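Ticket #4471: structure output looks truncated?

Reporter: J.K.
Steps to reproduce: submitted the chain below (484 residues) through the standard prediction queue, then opened the result file.
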Amino acid sequence: MKTKWTLSIFIGMLIFSMANPATAADDSLELQDESIYDVLVDRFFNKQIQNDYEVNGADPAAFSGGDFDGLTGEINHVKEMGFTVLSIGAVFSSATYDGKQVLDYNELERHFGTEEELKALIDKTHESDMKLMVDIPTQQVSANHVWATENPEWFTENEDGTLALDLENPEAQAALTEFAAGFISNYEVDGLRLQQTNSISPAFIEQFSKEIKDVRDVYLLSDQAMDPLPGLDAVVLPGVEETLREAYKNFDQDSAPLTDIMEKSEGSLIQVDSLADSRFTADVVEEKGFPPTRWNLLFTQLLTMPGIPVVQYGSEIAMNGKSVPESHQILDLGVQQELVDHIANLNSLRNSSEALRTGELEILKEEDGWIVYKRSNDEETWIMAINNTSATQSISLPADVVGVDKELRGLFANDIVRQGSNGDYLITLDREVAETFHVIEERGFNKAYIAALIALYVVFLLFLRIVWKKGKQRKADEAAKVSQ
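Returned output as attached by the reporter:
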């Protein structure tokens, strides 16, 4: 089955490259062009046993042993899926495996590894043509944070016993800014994500952004669904996770809210499986659905709609879990599923197509799970059709939507849709199937290719004739020698 997917995408990309030269993802990409893979260092891969201090794999709330070296050694898993940014969470000395309850910003978490190992990970990420991003928690740090001893006035206490850094306090602001500027200068990371941004002073965020970007031009993102704020390059689109989960947890769902989300998502972070709570797979299981099918359709939506996709580790293997830490399982890199290939294929298209990343959106059809939309710019056009219903669906697209004398080339099922006698293009999809169509000029028969095949055939026949004649002559010569 993997061969089938690989062949499909190869054919699709070949068609695409003939129609339009591909633009490969590189360091010149802007945030709107990126796709982000979000991991927890502790739950990715354990390579160094030297840093396994009191690790307990049987306790889901304890450190499990994942480290920087593990990420470095298995980074191809992320690269091969086509992501352009690796987000590794918080890496500072912490009381918890997820890095959120920070003890000391100026020390790396010893379970994760050393300064040299983090720099090696960053170098490997850059060598793999990806960027690297780190989280900065500030609102639920450990009660034993080193700053709290000497400067208790910098903090307020949360109900759960953790501390929140008061980022309206000028001294606390200066301390955090100085730390962040030093960190990005030392490690040359490409982005920072502020945790619980909606609890931080907007004025501080704007000033913080200006000062750290004077040191290094990094992305500054929010982890929260909120309205955009000055200084933040992107925030999570409010309602996007809930809308996508509701639309795809089962078939024949109300998909009307999807159109509203899609029309608002440009420039925003879009995600469906955040690490803060339950996994989308848990929703599917509750509906007694088949997770790979649900995820297949959802990823087609997520990676072709406007916005900056953020995919959490484990989504590619349909990781389950209703709450933290159950939803933070160790990633099983040995699992080989079609879903991983599907993500790679979609990201390959997205990375190669400016229209799929930043093109205009036009909703062509939406009705209870049957959704068809167009992404286009001046150079290219794509039609996405997602049939998340319990029956076969069809749509007839007029020439003023597709164009005259065009072909719609399906890149996964290899379908070809041509203009009918009535001038329309008829797309038909089986239940619970998604297809991505590239709109190109109608090709008909490739005369040059056919001529080349004929020429090759003629040359081959001539070659056989020459070999036959030489063989016949050799036998005659041998017979003459024997008669003498």
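Triage note (M.O.): checked the attachment and the full token line is present. The chain has one domain: 2-358.
Status: closed, working as intended.
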